[in-house]
UniProtKB/TrEMBL annotation:
Domain of life per record: Bacteria
This protein's name: Oxidoreductase, aldo/keto reductase family protein
Single annotated GO MF: oxidoreductase activity
Annotated source species: Actinomyces johnsonii F0542
Residues of the NADP-dependent oxidoreductase domain: 16-313
SUPFAM superfamilies reported in the protein's UniProt record: NAD(P)-linked oxidoreductase (SSF51430)
Pfam families noted in UniProt: Aldo_ket_red
UniProt cross-references to InterPro entries, sorted A to Z: AKR, AKR_Detox_Biosynth, Aldo/ket_reductase_CS, NAD(P)_OxRdtase_dom_sf, NADP_OxRdtase_dom
A single GO cellular-component term on record: cytosol
Length: 319
């Protein structure tokens, strides 16, 4: 499978690797973010993914910082029609959950920060079981019919809740979600692959998948090696990977990367890019150096033996 052309998702054409915006306004200031966005677009990428909650966890931030940076970028360049723009609702501290009123208010605020009239994919970021699902489905459909969003996406939803959303949408005459955003990478596969997993559910319902944590919070970039202390902003996120089997995966990724003269992150992304049902993995970059392997992964081709090797070591490391 080639990674050089766009992939169809409903009426959208998506580049095979998406750019995650979680670092914008957090570890990447506006100038660095603009550089990354410009270079990604120039390289042929077109999917920019963010959320209204990014990055409330950073000192001094309250959420909406990433959308603001992206909106400033869009307003300063005539590129909106070249971008597939995705954002999410439910995690911004002052706009939590998925009640109809919250979805309405959060969406208007996201549109304002993003400085656009419509969002191409609007995600329910996390399931809100305190709100009737019928209310949430109706709120998203109202926004779609008003032209404020084009398509609905689901992120972090369990298979049974995805099916419930579809049943409600069908019964109410609402548009079905077109994409699922799961946690999925070489070291995290079990709740996506296999019988009853999110991948099977997405396939049966005709959804694409846009995995997040595609690089396992940086672990698959090769920056963490055996016997070395783990530090940095994401150290806590890779605690579960401090096992020999996981380092074996990193070693295999590094070996394949050396053969192709690319960085390990490009290999990890290319493997995930071509997994069944995946439309585009998401990866973030706080500078041009980190963007380089994302750009390489747009076109990198792994041979069948390399794919088998990576999958075999991944199988051994599955939690």
């Amino acid at each position: 499978m080639t990674g050089t052309s766009t992939r169809a998702l409903a009426d959208l054409q998506i580049s095979p690797i998406g750019l995650g915006g979680n670092v914008f306004g957090w570890t990447a200031d506006e100038a660095a973010s603009f550089d990354v966005l410009d270079a990604y677009l120039d390289a042929g990428g077109n999917l920019v993914d963010t959320a209204d909650g990014y990055s409330y966890w950073a000192p001094g931030n309250s959420g909406g910082e990433s959308e603001t940076v992206i909106g400033n970028w869009l307003s300063s360049r005539p590129v909106r029609d070249r971008i597939v723009l995705a954002t999410k609702v439910s995690t911004k501290p002052d706009r939590p959950g998925l009640s109809a009123d919250n979805v309405r208010l959060a969406l208007e605020e996201s549109l304002s920060r993003l400085r656009t009239d419509t969002i191409d994919i609007y995600y329910a970021h996390f399931d809100d079981k305190s709100t009737p699902l019928e209310e949430t489905v109706s709120a998203f459909e109202k926004a779609r019919r008003a032209g404020r969003i084009k398509h609905v996406g689901l992120s972090n939803y369990a298979p049974e809740r995805i099916r419930q959303w579809f049943a409600i949408a069908d019964s109410q005459g609402c548009a079905r979600p077109i994409v699922l955003q799961p946690h999925y990478n070489l070291l995290h596969r079990d709740d996506v692959e296999g019988p009853g997993g999110r991948g099977q559910t997405a396939d049966e319902l005709g959804m694409g998948m846009m995995p997040y944590f595609a690089l396992a919070a940086g672990f698959l970039t090769g920056k963490y090696r055996r016997g070395e202390a783990v530090d940095g902003e994401r150290a806590g996120m890779v605690a579960d990977y401090q096992r020999p089997e996981c380092y074996d995966v990193v070693d295999a990724v590094v070996q394949v990367a050396e053969a192709h003269r690319v960085e390990p992150a490009a290999v990890a992304l290319a493997w995930l890019r071509d997994r069944p049902g995946v439309t585009a993995p998401l990866a973030s970059a706080r500078n041009l150096r980190q963007l380089a392997p994302i750009v390489d992964a747009l076109t990198l081709e792994l041979d069948e033996e390399e794919i088998r090797t990576l999958t075999r070591v991944s199988d051994a490391a599955r939690l």
